[in-house]
Amino acid sequence: MNDTELRNMKILVVDDEVDLEPLIRQKFRRQIREGIYDLVFAHNGLEALTKLLEYPEIGIILSDINMPEMDGLTLLLKLKELKNPGLKTVIISAYGDMENIRTAMNRGAFDFLTKPINFEDLEITINKTTEEIMQTRRSMLEHDQLVSLQQDLQTAHDIQQAILPKIFPPFPSRNEFGIFASMIPAREVGGDFFDFFMIDNDRLGFVIGDVSGKGVTAAIFMAVSRTLIRATGLKGIPAGECMNYVNRLLCNESVSCMFVTVFYGILSTATGEMEYVNAGHNPPYLSSRNGVDKLEMTGGVILGCIEDHHYRSRQIRLEPGDRLLLYTDGVTEAFNRDGTVYGDDRLEQFIREHPDAGPEELVKGILLDVNDHSSGIRPSDDITLLSIGYTGKI
Predict the structure, then answer these.
(1) Mean pLDDT of 313-339
(2) Can you give the residue range of the structural domain that contains 297?
(3) Is 42 inside a domain boundary?
(4) For residue 30, is pLDDT > 80?
(5) 370-381 pLDDT per residue, tens
(6) Domain final position from 114, 143, 172
(7) Phi, psi dihedral angles at 38 (to 5 degrees)
(8) Domain total for the chain?
(9) What is the chain's mean pLDDT, rounded?
(10) pLDDT of residue 3
(11) Of 60, 163, 298, 315, which one has the greatest count of Cβ atoms within 10 A?
(12) What is the CB neighbour count within 10 angstroms for residue 120?
């Protein structure tokens, strides 16, 4: 709705004086001809209500007080029931009728004029009332747009959460491993993601990622990245080839310089052998009988940035009882009220102090510890964790 639309104001004049209509039309003939004023006339309150139904775009009502069938004060009560802040009433009555004018103002009239009408004052009052209506309607439009945006964001949040795995345990018939993950967006929608899938009967693919930026754009890029990695990973190709292919696609399709950090791994559930690629992501923690260590980096850069980059993978072997913890930097960079981050040291300490915790217990425990550290402060970044516990063949 623009100012031109708002200024073409439809005005309802309510007065039982039959000579008033031609007089007003004559006085404002230029404004009527130029489309500044659009006038509608009624002779009492009942007829005015009928005109409002016929012309819902009416913005200003110029109403007399003393009229047959329904007077102006009663009309004001009926108008109040409409609860339309974009409709303003200006009362017109004799100067000696100040008591009724005061009552009209108390019943919601925006302004008043006294008879005999000074048409210069009337034009000033109409213009002032129009400006008020314009501001009110702008505010109403902005409010409606905000509500619509909030509804869209809630829908986007629901869709985003729906595409992430949320049923645990995800593979109840498999006893070689356990897995649990959680993603808490900092806003209605986030740029973090996790995923896992059985490539075949003996290989588990798993991934965690963190998209640059925030908000809806990051959420869309997150959904694209997650879908490409899953679709490519399900082909069963090696981890390095998977990242090479996905990176080329993201470089070709990326907009606004978006990129994503990714850790992608393929675990043999039968032997514990694991191949992985780290594309600029936080190195996961491996908890084993030898202690807690970060996995070595693989020299990979972020996805969606350098099209011809070649991703190399590394191989390790998990032993029964080993645990992996993948996370995004929203965990270690969670602030408390003093501006201190949660940090890698505290995360590693928590892992060391809970050597027997399974994937679900470990993830939920870290989330509680991060929340305790933050003292309820809303996170500034998405917080995502994924843990895998390898048990081997039983």
Answers:
(1) 95
(2) 155-390
(3) yes
(4) yes
(5) 999 998 788 888
(6) 143
(7) -125, 110
(8) 2
(9) 90
(10) 45
(11) 60
(12) 9
On whether both 374 and 236 belong to a single domain, the answer is yes
Could you tell me if 183 and 272 lie in one domain?
A: yes
What CATH number is given to the structural domain containing 104? 3.40.50.2300
CA 304/CA 247 separation, integer angstroms: 5
For residue 70, pLDDT over 90 is answered with yes
Of 143, 163, 197, which one is at a domain's C-terminal end? 143
Question: Are 137 and 175 part of one and the same domain?
Answer: no
Same domain, 179 and 295: yes
Rounded distance between C-alpha atoms, residue 192 and residue 263, angstroms: 12
pLDDT at 6: 44
Residue 243 lies in a domain: yes
Which sign does the torsion angle of CA 136, 141, 74, 67 carry? positive
Kindly report, residue by residue over 269-295, the tens digit of the pLDDT: 999 999 999 999 999 999 999 999 999
The answer to whether residue 150 sits within a structural domain is: no
Residue 148 located in a structural domain: no
Do 24 and 77 sit in the same domain of this protein? yes
Tokens of 90: 């200006």
First to last CA, the chain: 68
Residues 195-232 pLDDT 10s: 999 999 999 999 999 998 777 778 888 888 999 999 99
Together in a domain, 134 and 169 = no
pLDDT above 80: residue 384: yes
